[in-house]
Amino acid sequence: MKPLVSGPEAKRYEEPETSTYVLFPYERDVRGAMRLISADDMAQRFPKAWAHLRKWEAELRGRETGKMDRDKDWWGYVYPKNLDKQDAPKLIVPRLVQHLKSSSDAVGGVFLDNVDAGGVLPAQGIDLSYLLAMLNGPVCDFVFRIISKPFQNDYRSANKQFIAPLPIPNASAQARADVATRARGLEDRWTRRRDLMRETAERLSILGRTRHPARWLWPDLPDLPRMVEAAPAALRLPAERRAWAEERLDELEAARVEALQAAIDRGGRCEVRFQSGELRLYIGGTAALDKIYLDDAAGRLAQAYWRWLLFNEPSDGSRFATDLRRPPTASDSPAVTQFFERVAALGDEVAAIEVEERVMNELLYGLYDLSPAERNLVENARDRRNGAAIGG
For the chain, percent helix, then strand, then coil, each to nearest 5? Predict the structure, then answer.
């Protein structure tokens, strides 16, 4: 059984992780060639796997309208291509992406589904981590987005025809080694970030949650009784006045959500502050949400929770607004303490990633020998990758 990585599991810089496995009845022979394990060897060495295959023998033989109905290899793959590359050290690139990204399988420990995750093998003498840094860098992403064809929602196909032409600097051995070392450091940090995200989510999942109304997020919204009073005089029946008031409130809330979506779309650094009893959310230096007054325990917990939401890089304003209104309930549960600790650790990890990403980008710009105008073009592209690590 081999771990099988698909496109959604191929994350930028993160060590590959999957819960899916593929039954791979092949191994290398004495000459290093990949060969199908014989029926006798399967039965003797892997009796449970062989029993499983025998259980489905009729279906396996019937593949490709009976093409596999043969005694010599009915348990093998119909199209056994690239089998000898699966256990090789490689980069993993998801097939469908908005921005080019890659992870590294330095020991050849995972297999790829070859449908929505592709592999890139380094040339002899080239450090895999050097290529990892290049494919995750701003210049390759800039070029990729120019030469690739967009699909729905700005997704692009990262297949061979769009990866092969990407520019890789022919740097000195020392420069490549420096970049590779830093890439491995970023790999460690991004993987640690992923693990902390999971640990934080696990603690959050067992905490009680509050369901606040829209006025909690936007305290200046009128309440229902006040809006009923403002209903036109022509509406005399209580039911009519209430229906009118509820419709107006829905419109006002929708307008606030649209404003929040616009702030998200403009981009910029996100930060959460709880000071003097007031909870605020800043996006791009401007307060997107404010005047949310809470006691100390609830405020600190809401601040940590909002930071956690930002680490998940929200993009949909409506979903984000709903999530913001569901902070954990303050309690003396150990899970609350551990939630605080992990959100703080995430903040530290994110800050370190931001610093190391900036240092890496400076190195890469230098290796590409970009002119000031060319660098400005890459850094200020309208569709450039958002900040890799957000959260205040």
Answer: 50, 15, 35
Looking at residue 149, the DSSP 8-state letter turns out to be P
Q: Which amino acid belongs to residue 210?
A: T
Q: What is the pTM of this model?
A: 0.88
Q: Which two tokens stand for residue 197?
A: 């995200």
Q: What is the third-level CATH fold of 2-172?
A: Adenine-n6-DNA-methyltransferase TaqI; Chain A, domain 2 (3.90.220)
Give dist(CA 383, CA 42) in Å, integer.
52
State whether residue 214 is helix, strand or coil: helix
Task: Name, in order, each residue with C-beta under 8 angstroms of 359's C-beta and a sequence gap of 6 or more.
Answer: 182
Task: For residue 76, report the phi and psi dihedrals to the nearest 5 degrees.
Answer: -90, 180
Rounded-to-integer distance, Cα 309 and Cα 40, Å = 54
Residues 6+ apart with CB under 8 A from 353: 186, 189, 190, 193, 388, 389
pLDDT band at 392 (very low <50, low <70, confident <90, very high): very low
Amino acid at 249: L
**Which of the four pLDDT bands, split at 50, 70 and 90, describes residue 386?**
low
> How do the domains of the chain map onto residue ranges?
2-172, 208-330
Residue showing tokens 């396996």: 60
Is residue 296 exposed (0-12), middle (13-18) or buried (19+ Cβ within 10 Å)? exposed
